[in-house]
Amino acid sequence: MIAAPLVWTAKRGTLPAMQTPFYFDDTLVRFGVFAGLFILFAAIEYVWPRRRLVVSKGRRWFTNLGISVTASLLLRLMAALAVPLTAIAAALYAQQKGFGLLNAVDWPDWLKIVIALLVLDLAIWAQHLASHKIPILWRLHQVHHADRDIDVTTAIRFHPIEIGLSMLWKMVVVIGLGASPLAVFLFEVILNGCAMFNHANMDLPRPLDRLLRLAIVTPDMHRVHHSVYRAEHDSNYGFNLSIWDRLFRTYVAQPKDGHVGMRIGLAPYQTSSPTRLGWSLWLPVLGYPAEESRAPRGPADDAAGASDTRR
């Protein structure tokens, strides 16, 4: 635990810092964790891949990384034009003003952190569900699903506008909940790490997969979510914990066509187009209408839903 109060450090630009001569740069730590895990999972999926890739890895990686960089630049622009648009900044604001449920109760810090981690994870699950159910949000989210392969870079393939909206939603939840800056920092590190893990094209031993998915989302579990079948990509919305999909009956255990034989992506975009950066960024505007971009439900989807185990 950090015993000293967390304070804003404008010089560092992000939070948190301790009221001691030692300054904790959360941006540097998050980037370090991200880079370390990215390299680790990329190496594992290179040595033990689950599936053979179907399109050019070089073009995909250039595009997926390019989308991520564009999203980061958009967030920086938003922050330059307004208040710091980060979830940790929102947590500090709520802490200073006494906003939020957890700031109104005198509970142990560890308990507040656990509650915050659970509530934030549920909030991201709900946001992901909404991005599939609300047409205008799906137009943005389809950029993520258009990727015809799934690997560690798919975890950062989100349209910049979707990233911006996601940050605003996270800030609303953080302020309403009164989550501490430390809890938000831990959640964001865990979220990024888990997203890269469950998008990685790694071949986990089946017994290990069955054990892990009792608590967290595994690569095999999340790969179902990237199936071309609508009945399958409208399932397994979790990024961190697997309990929400089981609780809300959106859990699908395995893809109908198997992990090696299944098709990844969206039916209208089974071409090389999703590997192009410009095409991917303009897809929400120039692509298929929201419903047409999703394979309509048909016999194949009904069979997929019937053959999978829902918990």
Automatic annotation (TrEMBL):
Membrane found in the keyword field: yes
A GO CC annotation given for this chain: membrane
Chain spans, region Disordered: 292-311
UniProt subcellular location: Endomembrane system
GO BP field: lipid biosynthetic process; membrane lipid metabolic process
Keywords attached to this entry: Lipid metabolism, Membrane, Oxidoreductase, Transmembrane, Transmembrane helix
Membrane topology: Multi-pass membrane protein
Positions of the Fatty acid hydroxylase domain: 114-250
One MF term in the entry's GO annotations: iron ion binding
Amino acid composition bias (Low complexity), ranges on this chain: 296-311
Ranges that cross the membrane: 28-48, 69-93, 167-187
Xref: InterPro entries: Fatty_acid_hydroxylase, Sterol_desaturase/TMEM195
Name of this protein: Possible sterol desaturase
UniProt xrefs under Pfam families: FA_hydroxylase
